């Protein structure tokens, strides 16, 4: 028998598990949401091979630096899939990407997304992309392109993963970072909306261990467990950029840096944006742990040190600001609807700082930067 004889007749792409027509229907369902993020700098429509962005505005810069970032949302997608709720996960994706860009003072200009799934369900894909588009609108970022890939046999029919990348721009002499941070600066904490998009492997392990269902009503949360776990990541880009434009328009430029609190927790991410020789002391008593973090701790018996190096614990973004403008920055952010407070100070690193043990972090994520000391007990 020849190889030809043993091959079943009539094999098509559709019979192999890829539905091209479903992909086309998904694009039709998401087009309006994508277009709503476009401004005059976006050229062409939805469906092109590449998104085009008019970069003429960069001509007004003395020395424009492009900033780029890429990320996903991790195993939070498992919660979305289990609950069959897909319109919020896009907010998480945008937040994870654009808020890394704003840390250096850059304005995120445009974003692209990538969705891999086991089966294209047009309505589900459109929900995901609508969420991405809504997040881009909140960040003032254009969604200029994306890709949906069907991977039958690799992913289950109900499974998908999302990723995205964004590009921003900042004037070279306006870049924020460790070189601007000074002893005497103040740490400004900005509240998270919940767990955001990091640490879900720990969270899922805890709730599975406890045997809690996602539809369980939890009085401390005021909603079901699943609803709490799907609260979208807060997007800080517009707030941070507004602070920069408001306060750094003067020669003093009191806003020296930001730190996006993602995987690794507050201390590790803050240490990345501090220079060697300086240490931020963060006072836990300046805020109360939100209920969801207390719940994870109690249900899993998770040690505080592990919580702090995994979850944001109520602080999603940090600003490092000169002491004379810190109160004004807090008032400004609070007036914009973003709860903020002074959580610590920056000073020279004491020689015995490392004696604090787990409360002390020196450098992180490959960055040989400054140090962070966590002290005190959480309020409440």
UniProtKB/TrEMBL annotation:
Q: Which GO terms describe its cellular component?
A: cytosol
Record key words, sorted:
ATP-binding, Cytoplasm, Ligase, Nucleotide-binding, Purine biosynthesis
Which GO BP terms apply? 'de novo' IMP biosynthetic process; adenine biosynthetic process
Ranges for domain PurM-like C-terminal come to 182-351
Pathway annotation: Purine metabolism; IMP biosynthesis via de novo pathway; 5-amino-1-(5-phospho-D-ribosyl)imidazole from N(2)-formyl-N(1)-(5-phospho-D-ribosyl)glycinamide: step 2/2
Q: Which Pfam families match?
A: AIRS (PF00586), AIRS_C (PF02769)
InterPro entries for this protein: PurM-like_C_dom (IPR010918), PurM-like_C_sf (IPR036676), PurM-like_N (IPR016188), PurM-like_N_sf (IPR036921), PurM_cligase (IPR004733)
Tell me which EC number(s) this protein carries. Answer: 6.3.3.1
- Domain PurM-like N-terminal, residue spans: 65-170
The family this protein is said to belong to = Belongs to the AIR synthase family.
Question: What NCBIfam families does the annotation carry?
Answer: purM
Name listed for the protein in its UniProt record: Phosphoribosylformylglycinamidine cyclo-ligase
Organism classification, top ranks?
Bacteria, Bacillati, Actinomycetota, Actinomycetes, Micrococcales
């Amino acid at each position: 028998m020849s190889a030809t004889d043993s091959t079943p007749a009539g094999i098509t792409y559709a019979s192999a598990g890829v539905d091209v027509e479903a992909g086309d229907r998904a694009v039709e369902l998401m087009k309006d949401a994508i277009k709503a993020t476009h401004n005059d700098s976006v050229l062409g429509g939805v469906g092109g091979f590449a998104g085009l962005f008019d970069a003429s505005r960069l001509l007004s810069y003395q020395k424009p630096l492009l900033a780029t970032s890429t990320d996903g949302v991790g195993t939070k997608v498992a919660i979305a899939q289990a609950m069959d709720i897909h319109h919020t996960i896009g907010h998480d994706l945008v937040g994870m990407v654009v808020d890394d860009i704003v840390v250096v003072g850059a304005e995120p200009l445009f974003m692209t997304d990538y969705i891999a799934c086991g089966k294209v369900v047009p309505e589900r894909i459109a929900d995901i992309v609508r969420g991405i588009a809504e997040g881009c609108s909140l960040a003032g970022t254009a969604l200029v392109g994306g890709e949906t890939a069907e991977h039958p046999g690799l992913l289950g029919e109900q499974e998908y993963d999302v990723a995205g990348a964004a590009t921003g721009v900042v004037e070279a002499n306006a870049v924020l970072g460790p070189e601007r941070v000074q002893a005497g600066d103040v740490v400004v904490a900005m509240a998270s909306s919940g767990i955001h998009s990091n640490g879900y492997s720990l969270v899922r392990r805890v709730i599975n261990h406890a045997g809690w269902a996602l539809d369980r009503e939890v009085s401390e949360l005021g909603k079901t467990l699943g609803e709490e776990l799907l609260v979208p990541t807060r997007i800080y880009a517009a707030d941070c950029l507004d602070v920069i434009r408001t306060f750094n328009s003067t020669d003093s430029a009191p806003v020296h840096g930001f730190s996006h609190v993602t995987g690794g927790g507050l201390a590790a991410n803050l240490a990345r944006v501090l220079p060697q020789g300086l240490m931020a002391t963060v006072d836990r008593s300046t805020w109360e742990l939100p209920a969801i973090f207390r719940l994870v701790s109690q249900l899993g018996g998770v040690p505080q040190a592990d919580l702090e190096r995994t979850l944001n614990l109520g602080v999603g973004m940090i600003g490092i600001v000169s002491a004379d403008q810190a109160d004004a920055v807090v008032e400004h952010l609070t007036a914009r609807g973003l709860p903020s407070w002074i959580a610590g100070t920056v000073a020279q690193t004491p020689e015995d700082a490392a004696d604090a043990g787990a409360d002390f972090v020196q450098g992180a994520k490959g960055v040989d930067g400054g140090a962070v000391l966590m002290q005190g007990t959480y309020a409440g």
